[in-house]
Amino acid sequence: MKNFLKANDIAPVNKLVAKGLQHKKDPFVSQHLGKNKTIGLLFFNSSLRTRLSSIRAAENLGAKVWVLDAGKDGWNLEFEHGTVMDGTTAEHLKEAIQVMSSYCDVMGVRAFPKLIDREEDYSEKLFKDILHYSKVPVVSLESATRHPLQSLADLITMKEVFPERQKLKVVLSWAPHPRALPQSVPNSFAEWCNAADWIDLSIAAPIGYELAEEFSTPATTTSDQVAAFENADIIYTKNWSSYSDYGARPHVAGDWIISAEKMALTNNGKFMHCLPVRRNVVVADAVIDSKNSLVIQQAENRIYSAQAVFAELL
Ligand code: CP
């Protein structure tokens, strides 16, 4: 059974990007695929874009949708095996996933990392259990280590804005944030860019914030943000917590906010961020509100990334 958890899982990256752009051009042409089908969406964490764009994508394909916010809508779930469930958890993941997956033809799941135990998060233990118990294909709506629908939307957006370019100079830049955030978006973005032959990726991150090499390489990583910005076509910004000192926020010297002055170093570069974003912490108003900001287009393209993936699996 096919599942969509990472780059190249259900089709080569370039093919999925092209499919996404086709769906955007003619969103309702594949309505037959969803006839008498249901897409289930299970959220263990909050969402605006992933939730609504997935619903819209399913509707564009003629499918019905259910959405369940775990912990709020259902029973309090137990994840550990062999436990005596005489506490607060009322239902085991084992039954819950088997039951929920019998109510749909494709199931999307969002489950963030706890950012406490790196081995546990990077083993994708929860997603592995979900895949084991699910009777239908599973789509990651963001896991402990990756956010593949976001990355596909990001590549769709870059291809849409620069359709003819043989090579795009893309910089993934860390930016400040008051809370410890997962590495899933930057991991995934690096993985997808590294898999696309038309993207030349480099990563700008303070010392202590280097991504896991399994995601970052072969892209180079530098702690010189200003040098990295020179002549860039795209600045893709995100905060993330430390991988080496897992989940921590080591002190960062200097100013890493994305400012108009830094954007002026680029090749009239476009600004990208997956949203939600903290204005004037991660990025200055002058940048996100500029004509070079692609954030709304990126968010809209979440529909077509989900549509391309659901269409393949339906
Ligand atoms: N970018 C993204 O995944 O947004 P949400 O968390 O709102 O779904």
Distance between the termini: 12 Å
Question: Overall 3D geometry?
Answer: globular
Q: Determine and state the CATH class of the largest domain.
A: Alpha Beta
Q: What is the count of DSSP helices, taking H or I runs of 4+ residues? A: 12
Q: Sheet bearing the most strands, described?
A: 5 strands, parallel
Strand order of the largest sheet: 9-8-7-10-11
What report would you give on this structure?
- The protein has 314 residues and is α/β, with parallel strands linked by helices.
- It folds into two domains: 13-147 and 302-313, Rossmann fold; 150-299, Aspartate/ornithine carbamoyltransferase (Rossmann fold), CATH 3.40.50.1370.
- It contains twelve helices and eleven strands.
- The strands form three sheets. A five-stranded parallel sheet has the order 9-8-7-10-11. The chain has a four-stranded parallel sheet with strand order 2-1-5-6, with helices on both faces.
- Strand 1 (38-43), helix 2 and strand 2 (64-69) form a beta-alpha-beta unit.
- The longest helix is centred in the C-terminal third of the chain and has 19 residues, at 295-313.
